[in-house]
Write a structure and sequence with these properties.
The radius of gyration is 18 Å and the shape is globular. Strands 6-7-8-3-9-10 form a 6-stranded mixed beta sheet, sandwiched between helices. With about 240 residues, it is α/β, with parallel strands linked by helices. The protein binds adenosine-5'-diphosphate (ADP) (2 copies). This is Methionine import ATP-binding protein MetN. GO terms for molecular function: ATP binding. Keywords: Amino-acid transport, ATP-binding, Cell membrane, Membrane, Nucleotide-binding, Translocase, Transport.
Length: about 240
């Protein structure tokens, strides 16, 4: 059974203009993401990628169709169950979204504190995660003292704090130079290999998909216009 399964998912929004047609952000999308995949979703700006992320992350309900996680339909879940689903999905972002007022250690500790971990658990887990991302020496620094790549490594450590099964990377390398992008992608590859975390990579950059993803869905105008193994999709004339 697929870990994430979208079946004819559509999301539309009311038009900004009075009486205008609804804006269809995601249009009849079906796709399956298997546990352990590094699954790329590529498309130009406005293709519907971020909307798709919000649907999978249960931040918004679909207008039509169903989204199954482990075969369970999100639309059938209570708000309490949806909160559990959200905790099982880590997110990293283009602008990192770190807490600027908190130290690196406190940024990573935050999801653990929210989840009610003990002080000892937080301390041990933060140490382990900072070691994993190679930032133990920066524990007491603030984000404004870090490079972009270091900030994203903190973002990854924070996203992994509660041991999610899925990591959603939304344009996570789009603010980084090519070398730093390469380092961050290498780290994501380790997250996938060493922890078996399923990674969904949202990007407009073909290089990113070719460097890290095994499967890809190409979005345009809210639709998936092609999907499959990266090699097959991109070797088509
Ligand atoms: P991408 O992430 O690929 O750039 P989005 O999912 O952000 O694409 O947007 C897809 C389309 O849906 C765009 O036309 C966008 O303007 C529209 N859209 C996204 N979110 C909303 C919203 N909350 N209200 C109205 N329209 C939206
Ligand atoms: P505080 O003033 O609350 O100690 P810190 O930023 O030093 O703030 O730490 C935030 C959290 O991260 C605390 O729960 C602490 O246990 C943990 N922590 C701090 N420094 C380290 C470190 N070097 N290694 C592991 N955990 C740390």
């Amino acid at each position: 059974m697929a870990l994430v399964s979208l079946r004819n998912v559509t999301k539309s929004y009311p038009s900004a203009e009075r009486g205008g047609d609804r804006v269809v952000a995601v249009d009849d999308v079906s796709l399956d993401i298997e546990s352990g995949d590094v699954y790329g979703i590529i498309g130009y700006s406005g293709a519907g990628k971020s909307t798709l992320v919000r649907l999978v992350n249960a931040l918004e309900p679909a207008t039509a169709g169903s989204i199954l996680l482990d075969g369970r339909d999100l639309t059938q879940m209570s708000e309490r169950e949806l909160r559990g689903i959200r905790r099982g999905i880590g997110m990293i972002f283009q602008q990192f979204n770190l807490f600027e007022q908190k130290t690196v250690a406190k940024n990573v500790a935050y999801p653990l504190e929210v989840a009610g971990a003990s002080r000892a658990e937080v301390r041990a887990r933060v140490a382990e995660l900072l070691d994993f991302v190679g930032l133990s020496a920066k524990a007491k620094n603030h984000p404004d003292q870090l490079s972009g790549g270091q900030k994203q490594r903190v973002g990854i450590a924070r996203a992994l704090a509660t041991s999610p099964r899925i990591l959603l990377a939304d344009e996570a390398t789009s603010a980084l130079d090519p070398e730093t992008t390469h380092e961050v992608l290498e780290l994501l590859r380790r997250v996938n290999r060493e922890f078996g975390v399923t990674i969904i990579v949202i990007t407009h950059e073909m290089d990113v998909i070719q460097s890290i993803a095994t499967k890809v869905a190409v979005m345009d105008g809210g639709r998936v216009i092609e999907s499959g193994d990266v090699f097959d999709v991109f070797s088509n004339p």
